[in-house]
Fold this sequence. Notes:
Elements: H1 2-35, H2 37-42, H3 51-97, H4 106-119, E1 127-133, E2 136-139, E3 149-156, E4 159-168, H5 182-213, H6 223-233, E5 241-248, H7 251-258, H8 260-277, E6 283-286, E7 291-296, H9 301-316, E8 327-334, H10 341-378, H11 383-399, H12 404-416, H13 426-429, H14 437-443, H15 446-455, H16 464-468, H17 490-504, H18 516-526, H19 533-546
Antiparallel strand pairs: 1-2, 1-4, 3-4, 5-7, 5-8, 6-7
Helix pairs in contact: 1-3, 3-4, 3-5, 7-8, 7-15, 8-9, 11-12, 11-17, 12-17, 17-18, 18-19
Amino acid sequence: MGMIFGKLINKFKAIKKIVILTVLVLALIWSSEIFNIPYLIFGAPSTIINWQEASFLTFIIISVGILSCIQAIELKKSAVVSSERVKELECFYNINNLSSKPDLTLEDIFYEIVKIIPSSWQYPDITCCRIIINNRKYKTDNFKKTKWRQSADIVISGKKSGTIEVCYLKRKPYIDEGPFFKGERLLIDGISILIANFFEKRKTEEKLKYISFHDKLTGLYNRFYLEEEIARLDTKRQLPISIVMGDLNALKLINDAFGYRQGDRLLIKMAKILKKCFREEDIIARWGGDEFVILLPKTTEEDAVKLIERIREDCQKTTDQKIPVSISIGISTKTRKSQNIQDITKKAEDRMYQNKLTESRSIQSSMISSLETTLWERSHETEKHGERLKELALKLGRVVRLAPNELDELSLLSTLHDIGKIGIEDSILTKPGKLTEKEWVAMKRHPEIGYKIAQSSPQLLQIADGILYHHERWDGTGYPHGLTGENIPLISRIVAIADAYDIMTRSRLYKKAVSKKKAIEELKRCSGTQFDPKLVDKLIDIIGEKE
Length: 547
């Protein structure tokens, strides 16, 4: 509405000038007859010059004079407008130039912009400015929101994220189409676009910088950044410098057992513990797949050990969780400038591996125990089933004269032959009804998952093949490789038949128990097809003796 009103005023002013000019010229022509103006202008009596010609010449001269005056006024106004345009261009240039100063933060840039803007407007002494972006405000000290204001939205990624406002503190004569020049109105729109570009560019730069210096999964610093910081802080002033190197235990085992997502969660959990235990000035980085390195400037080895104790205490608190967190740690400290920081890092790494070797048996036992507990929780099987199966399998193993070490393997396999089921979805494991074809394909993967788990653990390595082949059948129709007869490991054949008998004679969610008589009949029916016929006969003898 204000712009329309301003246009009407400007048109009225132009019409007014024409009317005034016409009246003046007519008045002069009329007065020339009374005061003999041609004589006054040309210095001769009116009788010498034709009166009409003299009047016409008088009209021309006076009109030219009036038009010259009007032109002078317009030129003066144009000069003012041109001067303002120069100020506006300088403003735009100075603001745009801020983006080439990488040492300035976004906040610094916005504060600089609100300082630059007032001096570029028509009345800088009474001009104030404010930028609001993402709920943060940047303004001149004298900012006051008045009715003589102009504003523009700051649009970032297609969404309004803020506003820029320029206000006059008091009223000034209207110029152009309002209290601000048209160029100033265009300028504020341009500045709002520049601010949006600054924001997007700087955020992109910050994101790229963050990505280049941080580990994507844990949010910790990465190896590249840590190596840069080690080089930068390797000075006498930072001594003593302690380096802590840690290796997350059993990550491969967790990846094989539960999948890489669960392994990633374990890494993230470890990263959170490290962040909690170390100080803000310490530099924590993910060095590799399962390794972490912490740089501790101005830290003695004694103080570093105290920090390590915090980590051990926090890890200890996770022992009752489904997947406990455990880390092997080594420390080394540079105390003299002459020492090579790379040698200090290598020493910390050696100590870490020494610690890992010392604690490996305890760590593996703890992790296997945790996996075993998880297996009982997630499947239909119970711990009592495992105990019964072990007892029956060992009896059969002794009957077929297995060596002592083979009996140990059989005992372990009886307990953990289905360990791969912890990698199968709960919806499949606990389904009371018949599995679909797709679900059955997924279920048949558990021997291979169990094999990978066993391969990842030195304590289970000797039963890896037993786990892999415990669902093979005597006639070659089993899975995963379709082995036949005695190509199937003996301990796998023993566990298969003992497991089948215990399952048949005990009730489950999806089936009722059958009598021992019917179970023996089923074993005889499957002898030579599913089961080793010799083992079937021996197991029936054992069951008969037991009864």
